[in-house]
Design brief:
The chain is α+β, with helices and mostly antiparallel strands. It is about 45% helix and about 20% strand. The chain has one domain: Glutaredoxin, CATH 3.40.30. It is built from four helices and four strands, in the order E-H-E-H-E-E-H-H. It has a four-stranded mixed beta sheet with strand order 2-1-3-4, with helices on both faces. A hairpin with a 2-residue loop joins strand 3 and strand 4. The protein is globular.
């Protein structure tokens, strides 16, 4: 299965929803970087993604985006192949 990395915060309902969707797809391990605990990681996230909001999700080396992007990818039938290809 794919390696999944997620930039998140402790009180982010979209992060929880994204983790739930990934769990339903069989992803049991997510490397979670809490940017509210480590402000330097927030700067890292913004430099890597060009975005300020969480979650920011990577599947392997592919930047998926946020929760809405993840859901759109799933609805388009492209999430499972991406998870399997990594």
């Amino acid at each position: 299965m794919a390696k999944v990395l997620m930039y998140s915060t402790a009180v982010c309902p979209y992060c929880v929803a994204a983790k739930g969707l990934l769990a339903r797809k069989g992803i049991t391990e997510i490397e979670e970087i809490k940017i509210d605990v480590d402000p330097a990681r927030r700067e890292e996230m913004m430099a890597r993604t060009g975005r300020r909001t969480v979650p920011q999700i990577y599947i392997g080396e592919t930047h998926v985006g946020g929760h809405d992007d993840l859901v759109a990818l799933d609805r388009a039938g492209k999430l499972e192949p991406l998870l399997a290809a990594q």
